Structures are given as C-alpha cells and as structure tokens.
Amino acid sequence: MNCIFCSIIAGEAEASVVYDDANVLAFMDIRPFTSGHLLVVPKRHASGLSTLDPDDGARIFAVAQKIAAAMRTGPLPIDGVNLHLSDGAVAGQEVFHVHLHVIPRNRGDGFGLRALPRTPNRAILDSTAAVIRGALN
Ligand code: 5GP
Ligand code: ZN
Predict the structure, then answer these.
(1) Which of 2, 30, 57, 120 is the most exposed place for a label (fewest CB within 10 A)?
(2) Does 4 contact ligand 1 (Cβ within 6 A)?
(3) For 21-64, how does the pLDDT look when each residue is reduced to its tens digit (9 = 90+)?
(4) What are the domain boundaries of the chain?
C-alpha cells in the first residue's frame, strides 16, 4: 500500500510532529488552510470513515480536542478552531488515510464554509431527517 501518512507514521517520510502516542499522530499540514493548520491521524490505516475503527475515531477526536485547547490557551494568536474531516473524493478527500484537520482561526483569516443559498422548509428538513434516520436502523 502506498500511503503517505503511513510512511510518516513509520518514520519513512518527514513530518513536523505535534503529538505522538501509541495510536495517534498529529503533524503540521504542508499546505495549510490557515497558519498552524495540522492533521490528527490514527496510526492504524483506514482509508475512510466506513472502515475506521470507532475507537480510533474517538481517539483522534480526543487528541484534536486537546490540541484545540492548547491552541486557544497557548502563546499563538488563535481565537477559534475548526475541526474538519473529508470523507470521499467528492468531499475533497485527497489522502485516503483518515485524518482530522485542526484549523486555527482568527478574524479575517479568509477560511470559511458556505451554506446553501436558501433555507429548506420544515417539510424538506423533516423528510430528509426521516431518510437518514431510516438508514441508521
Ligand atoms: P484532505 O483533502 O484529504 O482532507 O486533506 C489532505 C491534507 O493532507 C491536505 O491538507 C494536504 O495539504 C495534506 N498533505 C498532503 N500530503 C502531505 C504530506 O506529505 N505531508 C503533510 N504533512 N501533509 C500532507
Ligand atoms: Zn495509511
């Protein structure tokens, strides 16, 4: 398997590491959305959410939460944080080893997500909720 994040985890590719434990590694993104943008990855390879061990999902979230707290209280000028995960090419996933983006935010940094131009009515929200709820069962 040719996975750049597995190579980083194995120490075969370089990375600027922020956090390292038995299950999780966090390192700086080489093409940051904002200054300080980093990635939190499970050490066990999973290409996407459908194959991610839920325990690893919980672990990467816990590490991202800890890093976000450190960003907010540390010396860097960081006023907020976005956590982001892309699952699937259409969602913007480029590296097929699950990773949680930790994106530091400051006013006017230019980063953002955009909503659809119109608010769907309640009937549409209810029917979409019912379809997703049905798929959960
Ligand atoms: P995705 O689009 O898959 O959610 O995010 C992949 C991220 O990995 C991108 O933000 C990209 O800049 C980052 N990335 C791609 N290759 C490397 C690499 O070799 N090293 C590091 N540190 N980040 C990478
Ligand atoms: Zn991998």
Answers:
(1) 2
(2) yes
(3) 999 999 999 999 999 999 999 999 999 999 999 999 999 999 99
(4) 4-111
